[in-house]
Amino acid sequence: MSDLLIMGSGVVGNFAAAYFRRYFPTLRVTVVGRSDQELPIVGESLVELSTHFLQDLGLSRTLIEQHLPKYGLTYYYKLDASRPRDPGYVVDEAPSNPPFPSFLINRFSFDAELRRLNRQRGVRCIEGKVTDVSLGNGAPHRVTAQRADGREESLEARWLVDATGRRRLLARQLGLQSQAPHQRSAFWVPDACASLD
Ligand SMILES: Cc1cc2nc3c(=O)[nH]c(=O)nc-3n(C[C@H](O)[C@H](O)[C@H](O)COP(=O)(O)OP(=O)(O)OC[C@H]3O[C@@H](n4cnc5c(N)ncnc54)[C@H](O)[C@@H]3O)c2cc1C
């Protein structure tokens, strides 16, 4: 029986585990998810506020010693937009070190370090996949996890956190999905950028 069971072992699931262990150290926290997937991991750029959050979780040293500092955005402007072939441009960059740090992180080493810290701080980590969720309506919630070796395990928890990202495990199960009225994806295409000059 856990107090808190987090479904999904991506960065959000592991941040949630670290946060709850830090501020509610008596809670028994379990994370169910797989860390050995060969999926691309995106999201390397921290802003000042997220850096502050990570420092609060005790990750300051990791950030400073193992990741790259960011010195704010640099913008390049054409001198005259009506002359697209003119190679001249001006550079507008942060004049000095920003007052609050932020970082570009290597997600593979960062995520591995976060999981290691969580285990060290008493988070139970189950390598596997959630295959069934039965909400308790007052009683403990029941979750079935299939471990990497195929074995099934039944788990109980007072609270659940759905951190399954775009899979949206609970939202799908509860029929909370709705079609967005507008396109919300953004695509960065190098060729399109090149054709702007
Ligand atoms: C191109 C791109 C660039 C981005 N750049 C940035 C950036 O620079 N900075 C930034 O802060 N953010 C960035 N983001 C956003 C950021 O990547 C996401 O917000 C973040 O990765 C979401 O993390 P997550 O843990 O919620 O989801 P995910 O990383 O998707 O993790 C969900 C986890 O749940 C697991 N899971 C799913 N189903 C189950 C199940 N049934 N049982 C157990 N586990 C399950 C999945 O395997 C996965 O490990 C970017 C996103 C994109 C697409």
Architecture blueprint of SSEs:
Layout: E1 2-7, H1 11-23, E2 29-33, H2 48-56, H3 60-66, E3 68-69, E4 74-78, E5 89-93, E6 103-104, H4 107-120, E7 124-134, E8 141-147, E9 152-162, H5 169-173, H6 190-194
Parallel strand pairs: 1-2, 1-9, 2-7
Antiparallel strand pairs: 3-6, 4-5, 7-8, 8-9
Helix pairs in contact: 1-4
The structure holds flavin-adenine dinucleotide.
Flavin-adenine dinucleotide binds at residues 7-13, 32-34, 37, 42-45, 129-130, 163-167, 169.
Keywords, please?
27% helix, 27% strand, two-stranded antiparallel ribbon, binds flavin-adenine dinucleotide, 2 domains, single chain, FAD/NAD(P)-binding domain, alpha/beta, disordered C terminus, five-stranded mixed beta barrel, 6 helices, 197 residues
3D architecture notes:
It is a single chain. With 197 residues, the chain is α/β, with parallel strands linked by helices. It has 2 domains: 1-42 and 107-197, FAD/NAD(P)-binding domain (3-Layer(bba) Sandwich), CATH 3.50.50.60; 45-105, no CATH class. Helices cover 27% and strands 27% of the residues. The chain contains 6 helices and 9 strands; from the N terminus they run βαβααββββαβββαα. It has helices spanning 11-23, 48-56, 60-66, 107-120, 169-173, 190-194, and strands spanning 2-7, 29-33, 68-69, 74-78, 89-93, 103-104, 124-134, 141-147, 152-162. Strands 1-2-7-8-9 form a 5-stranded mixed β-barrel. A two-stranded antiparallel ribbon has the order 3-6. Helix 1 (11-23) runs parallel beside helix 4. It is globular, with a radius of gyration of 22 Å. Flavin-adenine dinucleotide binds next to helix 1, strand 2 and strand 7.
